[in-house]
Model the fold of this input.
Amino acid sequence: MVGMVLAAGAGRRLRPYTDTLPKALVPVDGETTILDIALRNLAEVGLTEIVVVVGYAADAVRKRQAGLERRYRVTLTLVSNDRAEEWNNAYSLWLAREWFTRGVLLVNGDTVHPVSVEKTLLTERGPDVLLAIDTVKPLAEEEMKTTFDTTGQLTRISKLIVPGEAHGEYIGATLIEPQAAGALADALEVTWRRDPNLYYEDGYQEFAERGGEVRAAPIGDVPWIEVDNHDDLTRAREIACHC
Done:
């Protein structure tokens, strides 16, 4: 199994930090960045071969690659997304599809969370696709919400779900099993070709509708944050101190 980080996003709402850096390289604890925390977590659960999808300000990641590899004792493979500033992340994840056959523990490069999330996914592995879900946090309009049927199968994943109807929020961490590789890659391709502005979560929806098994791994009462703006960054810095 390999680790994977989606770190192609520009993070325009985090300017001036992201004038020259991708969102994943915004510092959250001294010089420690969001990417540092992602790599540290993946290494802690034994995943030392890690794929990083880069796009906006990719050279900033390349310049730090050797140092990150030494610090976390990992090997990084960078996958370039030259459409990162135009298209959404369904395309980013599809670009890394060749690694799906190895099994992938994927984390978003804009999320700060403790390593307990990765441990939960690995402990509960089995379904084709396993989503880390926060079932505790109150939900609002912006969150990536989910619903599941009585058997535990994903029925919908979207920001458009009415908060009161959702079963929880997807936090941006997924375990993809090798048996899902081909079908998930096909679902992602259909998704971005239909509309390149769609999310990879829309690809998960497509995969589930085609019969792929997508289930939830509740993470419990865990502090985490998706860093989209400066308020989120303030909270991320509080969380990072305890990660």
Notes: Helices lie at 34-44, 58-72, 89-95, 116-123, 181-194, 200-209, 230-240. The chain is about 30% helix and 25% strand.
